[in-house]
Design goal:
The protein is of the alpha/beta class. The chain is built from eight helices and 16 strands.
């Protein structure tokens, strides 16, 4: 049997060491090769894509970015690893399987349960990335802290707090920060639902970060263009048009921001 390439992610060193010991104990049942370790979610996303890991043993309760969000980002890889969640609490079980986790193990992990999960991973067909990504987008009660983009088989993370606006253009959504634009393959409707507390819709094709709005200005209109309100954003020259349909709602949502005639 070809050894299964395993990546271990847990913020506690004793927990990672225990998993290594368990893997050695069951090596005659399920041969494995540990190809990497990480102490937090960001390290997983940096190191796992190039590791060749087929299985990820993933703790859920990690600082900064928890295991559920990590799984949602990894689902965008062309070849996502099978995820086996490991946790001290069972309250995340439903969310874990919503991101198509292969298994869900409770701490302290027993060697027999780990062997069973790895045996399933060794024979399971990879879950199609499209299916994984679709399920991952709907899982987890809390919004993500980062947007993820794949570039040359690595994951690029953009903090949600850095995003000024999200604008739908053809089949993609443009994500704008102070530094640059990125394209994300997600629907504007789903993004509005996930980040309702942070973004407000100003047009059928555009969401703006409430914190980035510094005011409004009335466009006089040129040629055949009708006069309309525009959003002024902090730190960028773009002025984004507000549709007549959305104006009242937008003005009410950010009413503390001054309007300029």
């Amino acid at each position: 049997m070809t050894p299964v390439a395993v990546f271990i992610a847990d913020d506690e060193t004793p927990a990672r060491n225990r998993l290594r010991t368990l893997l050695e104990d069951i090596i005659d049942t399920v041969p494995t090769n540990v190809v990497g370790e990480a102490r937090n979610g960001l390290e997983v996303l940096e190191q796992l894509p190039g590791s060749g890991a087929r299985v990820l043993l993933l703790d859920i309760a990690m600082p900064g970015m928890d295991g559920l969000e990590v799984a949602r980002h990894l689902a965008r890889l062309p070849q996502a690893p099978a995820v086996i969640f490991i946790t001290a609490h069972d309250r995340h079980a439903v969310e874990a399987f919503e991101v198509h986790a292969l298994d869900f193990l409770m701490k302290p992990v027993r060697a027999t349960r780990l062997a069973e999960a790895l045996q399933r991973a060794a024979v399971a067909a990879p879950t199609p990335t499209a299916t994984l990504a679709g399920a991952a987008a709907q899982a987890g009660a809390a919004p993500r802290g980062h947007f993820s983009l794949t570039e040359r088989n690595r994951i690029l993370l953009v903090p949600v707090a850095d995003v000024l606006y999200l604008r739908a253009e053809q089949k993609y959504v443009t994500l704008r920060t102070h530094e640059r634009e990125h394209l994300v393959d997600e629907s504007l409707v789903a993004l509005e639902r996930e980040f309702a507390e942070r973004f407000v819709r100003i047009h059928r094709n555009c969401l703006v970060a409430r914190a980035a709005v510094r005011g409004f200005e009335r466009s006089t209109g040129e040629g055949n263009e009708e006069a309309h309100w525009e959003v002024l954003l902090e730190g960028v020259p773009e002025r984004l048009p507000v549709s007549r349909r959305q104006w009242a709602a937008v003005r009410a949502e950010v009413k503390s921001k001054p309007a300029r005639d």
